[in-house]
């Protein structure tokens, strides 16, 4: 790994990074997978009516997007990401090796779910996921919008997520 200043996105960071970047490329992270496993108390829900958002949970692998940030913008980017991703400390900031779509291997900042945190939902049945996604509305908007936007962007990248497809189908048919 010879390059630094990379950020790995697997959920809303893919379609709404919120920071300037010099390069955006498909990427693969081994050792963690995308899962709706975090009760959202801020961005897509409240403590009284939590939503459900994605986390990088241990095991498996995840296809997403990597962003290369210019060195002079790195400190402000990390400060922004910490303010966004670590509001309740349900995510742990980590440096993980990733493989970019063009074959390069780099180190990237990734936000992994903390399984010991009270907001960790684990692997919920799709019926429970549907309830949380339907009820969740937070500072960043409705939870269903987050799920649909993420799925749309995954599809555009050619990344198939059967669980999110099934969840959106339920949201669309059980209005």
Textual characterization of the structure:
It contains 5 helices and 7 strands; from the N terminus they run βαββαββαββαα. The strands form 2 sheets. The chain has a 5-stranded mixed β-barrel. A two-stranded antiparallel ribbon has the order 6-7. A hairpin with a 2-residue loop joins strand 6 and strand 7. The radius of gyration is 16 Å and the shape is globular. The N and C termini lie far apart (47 Å).
Distance between the termini: 47 Å
In the CATH hierarchy, the architecture is: Roll
Mean pLDDT: 95
The best one-word shape is globular
Structural class: alpha+beta
Biggest β-sheet: strands ordered side by side in the sheet = 1-3-2-4-5
Q: Give the low-pLDDT segments.
A: none
**What's the structural domain tally?**
1
Sheet bearing the most strands, described? Answer: 5 strands, mixed, barrel
Question: What percent of residues are in strands?
Answer: 35-45%
Write the layout of secondary structure elements.
Elements: E1 6-9, H1 12-15, E2 23-40, E3 51-68, H2 74-85, E4 91-100, E5 105-113, H3 126-135, E6 137-138, E7 141-142, H4 143-156, H5 162-173
Parallel strand pairs: 1-5
Antiparallel strand pairs: 1-3, 2-3, 2-4, 4-5, 6-7
Helix pairs in contact: 3-5, 4-5
Short recap of the structure:
Strand 6 (137-138) and strand 7 (141-142) form a beta hairpin. This protein has helices at residues 12-15, 74-85, 126-135, 143-156, 162-173, and strands at 6-9, 23-40, 51-68, 91-100, 105-113, 137-138, 141-142. With 175 residues, the chain is an alpha+beta fold.
Keywords:
175 residues, Hypothetical upf0131 protein ytfp, 5-stranded mixed barrel, two-stranded antiparallel sheet, 7 strands
